[in-house]
Amino acid sequence: FPFRLFPLREHGMNWRARPLTCQEIQAFRKSKEVMDRFIRAYKLMLGFYGINLVNEETGELERAENWRERFENLNRFSHNNLRITRILKCLGEMGYEDYQVHLVKFFLTETLVEETLPNVKRSALDYFLFTVRSKEKRRELVHYAWQHFRPQSSFVWGPRDKLQKYR
């Protein structure tokens, strides 16, 4: 069977790769070896995108030294956005929900605050944000996005009245 680096319980672009079962996910999560390999694969992909995992406990991220060159690649090739969505979903499946939050916030910061990834902005708002499993953390991220989105009146990812009252 073909396998995926970041397997999910849904079909992806590779029609030959079968979706994971809940039993397989539980088995993966119980295996230290599998989870260590998963984190290695995550760090490898982050490196490809110009990002470093600063803290394995929390999932904190920062730009890598080669970020300019790698961000150029991210801006040029939109297929990376599908991979990032897949990685985010897989992080949730594997129990790394804090990692999801850090990766989404990283992309929101780079797209909305730093404006280094203009071609990733739409995916960050339409897809990345909504992979975050924790409803509370997702709300925090939507609020963060709303605070930095310009023009704020065009923000469509949450109800304005709730965003204004948030916290």
UniProtKB/TrEMBL annotation:
<dbReference type="GO" id="GO:0140625">
    <property type="term" value="F:opioid growth factor receptor activity"/>
</dbReference>
<dbReference type="Pfam" id="PF04664">
    <property type="entry name" value="OGFr_N"/>
</dbReference>
<dbReference type="InterPro" id="IPR006757">
    <property type="entry name" value="OGF_rcpt"/>
</dbReference>
<comment type="similarity">
    <text>Belongs to the opioid growth factor receptor family.</text>
</comment>
<dbReference type="InterPro" id="IPR039574">
    <property type="entry name" value="OGFr"/>
</dbReference>
<dbReference type="GO" id="GO:0016020">
    <property type="term" value="C:membrane"/>
</dbReference>
<feature type="domain" description="Opioid growth factor receptor (OGFr) conserved">
    <location>
        <begin position="5"/>
        <end position="164"/>
    </location>
</feature>
<protein>
    <submittedName>
        <fullName>OGFR factor</fullName>
    </submittedName>
</protein>
